[in-house]
Design goal:
With about 200 residues, the protein is of the alpha/beta class. It has 5 helices and 8 strands, in the order βαβααββαβαβββ. An 8-stranded mixed β-sheet has the order 4-3-2-5-1-6-8-7.
């Protein structure tokens, strides 16, 4: 399976709490829900197309607990059957079991276990949110594709997908589209380490 990251970002790179004010208030974050005003039918269609390529999901603990709380109750939502039915893997050193079936807990050497999952047959192993997990797997060179949905808002504070001190990574742009609601959908593939050069005459 290919490992694909799907992340909602603000223009200043915040990924924390996009879906509601109480989604993730860790570290005193009070500006959750910043993504929702910009959602539209075109984005919903794209999100559905992406979900249709998933054969399994990979979450960090916090994102998993939020999804496990909400999605089993949203049985009428068009995405519910996919999210509730497909296998879910959770990277956590504190959870002993997951109540959102079918769930498997990963602990210990997470990158090695994710590398093993990627060797299984299938299409996409998708990461939704889970920024800290995504950072570690990007540093390990395991993420094949990044789907970043950037909202036209500056949040000003909160946890970022690409923090200072994060691992460098080279990317190649596969597509760049916008929606009527102002979302910029940027899809990249990983290319390994970045390349560098010097600008100047004759370069």
């Amino acid at each position: 399976m290919r490992l694909v990251l799907q992340e909602f970002l603000s223009l200043d790179g915040v990924s924390q709490g996009p879906g509601s004010p109480d989604e993730d208030t860790s570290d005193g974050f009070t500006q959750g829900g910043w993504f929702v005003p910009h959602m539209d039918e075109e984005f919903e269609r794209q999100a559905g197309d992406w979900l249709g390529s998933a054969d399994a999901f990979l979450f960090g603990r916090r994102t998993y607990l939020n999804f496990a709380r909400d999605w089993p109750q949203m049985t009428e939502h068009p995405f519910a059957g996919i999210l509730n039915g497909l296998p879910k893997y959770v990277a956590s050193h504190s959870l002993a079991e997951g109540a959102w079936d079918p769930t498997t807990i990963l602990s210990g050497d997470i990158p090695s276990q994710v590398a093993e999952l990627k060797q299984q047959p299938g299409r996409e192993l998708q990461i939704h949110g889970s920024a800290r997990l995504a950072q570690s797997l990007l540093a390990a060179g395991l993420i094949d594709e990044l789907r970043l949905v950037v909202a036209p808002v500056i949040v000003g504070a909160g946890r970022r997908l690409f923090p200072d001190g994060g691992a460098p990574a080279g990317l190649r742009l596969l597509s760049n589209t916008t929606t009527p609601g102002g979302l910029a959908i940027q899809v990249y593939e990983s290319t390994g380490r970045p390349t560098y050069g010097t600008y100047g005459a004759g370069a």
